[in-house]
């Protein structure tokens, strides 16, 4: 049920947008009103979550350290495993964001005959995640040509590099194939791996199916269906100029694509997808491991009155003498 319900939800959302625009004439709703609402939810929710996390106090350094910290000069420090300054901590965050460094070092443990506990490399999740995220980034950048006029030169170069295969008309984009392949792997991993499936929830499958729906509807529009690209660009430019207007007939599959993107944008700030912003605020990653060099004081601790042992001895001297306890000084 935790896989079927999200899948059926994405299918129903797609049908709602398709028949709502093709049969009921709700192009204004699905092409203007809902995208604006989704954008407002995305921007407002994203910044609210970020501001909320930024206000969370982190009095102590809780960095994840898996290597040698800075110590004596003749002991080599692992700068990214145990960063001691701002730039090494920044480098570790960038390696995590751009290359998924921690996933690359992912290992699996299995019990073999004996019984023996055997450790091995597990790189498929790293590869699938890396391909998915980088493909999605390139696809999003390519879509900027619908919003900008004239199209910047770097987008023209990116578009040509992505479609260099030239084996179909229109040209086949490599990232389209990689995006769907990576998403299929991520879904199959959660579906068929018994251990992963056991801990997975419906809200783990829903964004994956939603992204698959967005990708497949986009591929259908480009390679199989018929839409008016000129009207699409007019609609997008009217939206970003805040002069919304539905220019003319585009095609139901386009509104399916746009509606699923709107649902993803509205859902984004309230889901696990917010790791996109949260990774930069993770204290286990972005803090330097300098606990031995700097004393970190808890900022919300109440001031404590300190009493020396001499003062303690003066207060309880008589009782200590009666109990024949040793005194540091006599009266």
Tell me the number of strands.
2
Radius of gyration: 29 Å
Strand content: under 5%
Find the structural class using helix and strand composition: mainly alpha
Note poorly predicted spans.
none
Helix content: 55-70%
Element string (H = helix, E = strand): HHHHEEHHHHHHHHHHH
Shape annotation: elongated
Nearest-integer average pLDDT? 87
Q: How are the strands of the biggest sheet laid out side by side?
A: 1-2
Task: Please give the alpha-carbon distance between the first and last residues.
Answer: 80 Å
What is the tally of helical segments? 15
Largest sheet: 2 strands, antiparallel
Give a description of the structure.
The protein is mostly helical and 331 residues long. It contains 15 helices and 2 strands. It has helices at 4-22, 27-54, 86-99, 101-104, 124-142, 153-162, 174-192, 194-199, 202-223, 229-240, 252-267, 275-278, 283-286, 309-315, 317-322; strands at residues 107-112, 116-121. The protein has a two-stranded antiparallel sheet. The longest helix has 28 residues, at 27-54. It is elongated and about 100 Å long. The N and C termini lie far apart (80 Å). The mean pLDDT is 87.
